[in-house]
């Protein structure tokens, strides 16, 4: 099953890839590696998923936000590559979680993004990952995720 077929099976329609919000590009490819700029979580209705984990939102909300960041990453892959079958491996995800100082479940929040990568890309979706807590993220969002992927 292709990644596009898997997305359809999961009921996920990719949004248009988000345009950069400042002076950077969405993707940079060097050799076989593509670096994808951090994606913030847009809900299916286009609104931003805002909040701070351990304060105004819970882990389940954070996981849903991380999953939506992963959808944004896949949209960037599709825009840059044309065909998601060109994704050879998800190499690494960086997960940034807006967190209350006492919140320590960033890895569980990050699973929202990680799980989607495995669902869509199978074994090629298994990756290294960092999940860190930060005081604040752009636009007040709860999570931001960036990625490094290997392409064919």
UniProtKB/TrEMBL annotation:
This is Endoribonuclease L-PSP/chorismate mutase-like domain-containing protein. Residues 5-139 form the Endoribonuclease L-PSP/chorismate mutase-like domain. CDD domains: YjgF_YER057c_UK114_like_1. It comes from the Bacteria. Pfam families: YjgF_endoribonc. It comes from Sandarakinorhabdus cyanobacteriorum.
């Amino acid at each position: 099953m292709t990644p596009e077929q898997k997305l359809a099976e999961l009921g996920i329609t990719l949004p248009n890839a988000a345009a950069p919000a400042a002076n950077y590009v969405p993707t940079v490819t060097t050799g076989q590696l593509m670096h994808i700029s951090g994606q913030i979580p847009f809900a299916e209705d286009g609104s931003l998923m805002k909040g701070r984990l351990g304060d105004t939102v819970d882990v389940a909300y954070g996981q849903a936000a991380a999953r939506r960041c992963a959808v944004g990453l896949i949209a960037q892959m599709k825009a840059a590559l044309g065909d998601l079958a060109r994704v050879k491996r998800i190499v690494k995800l960086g997960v940034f979680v807006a967190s209350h100082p006492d919140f320590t479940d960033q890895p569980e929040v990050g699973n929202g993004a990680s799980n989607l990568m495995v669902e869509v890309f199978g074994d090629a979706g298994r990756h290294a990952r960092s999940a860190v807590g930060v005081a604040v993220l752009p636009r007040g969002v709860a999570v931001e995720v960036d990625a490094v992927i290997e392409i064919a």
